[in-house]
Write a structure and sequence with these properties.
alpha+beta, SH3 type barrels, L,D-transpeptidase catalytic domain-like, 2 domains, five-stranded mixed β-sheet, 3 helices, 19 strands, 15% helix
Length: 311
């Protein structure tokens, strides 16, 4: 059968139009059932922000907004947000002395005196704070130990301290020589630790800044002798023992204040809130100072300051 070229062209065009129509209908059906959801048009960050602004507010807090849930005497639940604070550290004040003499601050498992006591903190401890909770006209700080711990199982549950027993510290926290901006701008400061006389001397050039009785390591855990450099500073450290190859004695000391690290083996100049035996050997290898003196030295000493330990 003879078919003209124009007729053939019309037939082909008609078939293509039908195929195109079926293709469009096919993709419309797929889109309707959600199969093409991953190919939806891109939404800009501005449009997304507008959508989020106009969306109904969720009754649940965001994941990073920690809350405390407690049961009241009526059996209902109260959600108390832990609010962020502009500082990270506090110092314990108005509490008991080094040997627990006097009335100690009671640390509780929740923000209120109706929560169980989980610890008793002594004066001069420095603690890191995760936020505050306001309840019934009182403020409670949540204590956090987010550093490396030799025995993390010793820290169980939450800890809260009443704000009236916590002096706010405006300290920038952990600093190390690894951060180039923290390199000491002066090389004339130096610290001398004398293990024989149990004395510490701090000089800026030839000018004496501090002369203070200390406690260095006992015979089985001596403070290492030599010339060192302060390479790490932190206002608070949770110190625990025993430590293999260092000390086989048990100790558990949260909130050790004003730490100046001068050996990678863990030798530190720091405040000691648990004893008053300065002037004689006492420690597990660190250099102990009275907390108030340790604070002065901490803020005076630069990263990179030379430390000489000798007999």
């Amino acid at each position: 059968m003879f078919v003209t070229r124009s007729y053939h062209r019309r037939v082909v065009h008609s078939l293509l139009a039908v195929m195109l129509l079926f293709t469009v209908l096919f993709f419309i059906v797929l889109y309707r059932i959600g199969f093409l959801g991953s190919f939806a048009p891109h939404v800009s960050s501005t449009d997304l922000a507008l959508l989020e602004r106009d969306a109904p507010k969720t009754p649940f807090p965001k994941e990073e907004e920690a809350v405390v849930i407690e049961a009241t005497s009526t059996g209902t639940e109260v959600v108390l947000p832990i609010k962020k604070v502009l500082f990270e550290y506090v110092e314990v004040v108005g509490s008991c002395g080094p040997h627990y003499e006097g009335e100690c601050v009671r640390v509780r498992s929740g923000p209120g005196t109706d929560y169980p006591v989980v610890a008793r903190y002594r004066n001069s401890m420095v603690l890191k704070i995760a936020g505050k909770v306001e309840r019934e006209g009182h403020v409670w700080y949540k204590v956090v130990f987010d550093e490396f711990l030799h025995y993390p199982e010793r820290v169980q549950g939450d800890s809260y301290i009443a704000a009236e027993y916590a002096n706010v510290l405006l300290d920038e926290g952990l600093r190390t020589l690894d951060d180039q901006k923290n390199i000491a701008t002066s090389s004339i400061k130096r610290i001398i630790v004398n293990r024989t006389t149990q004395m510490l001397y701090a000089y800026e050039g030839d000018m004496l800044f501090m002369q203070e009785k200390i406690s260095t390591g006992l015979e089985l855990t001596p403070t290492p002798a030599g010339i060192f450099t302060i390479f790490r500073k932190t206002p608070s450290r949770y110190m625990q023992g025993p430590i293999p190859d260092v000390s086989d004695q048990y100790y558990d000391l949260p909130g050790v204040p004003w730490n100046l690290y001068f050996t990678h083996g863990g030798a530190v100049i720091h405040g000691a809130y648990w004893h008053t035996s300065f002037g004689q050997k006492y420690s597990h290898g660190c250099v102990n100072l009275p907390p108030d003196k340790a604070r002065l030295l901490y803020y005076w000493a630069d990263l990179g300051t030379r430390v000489t330990v000798k007999d």
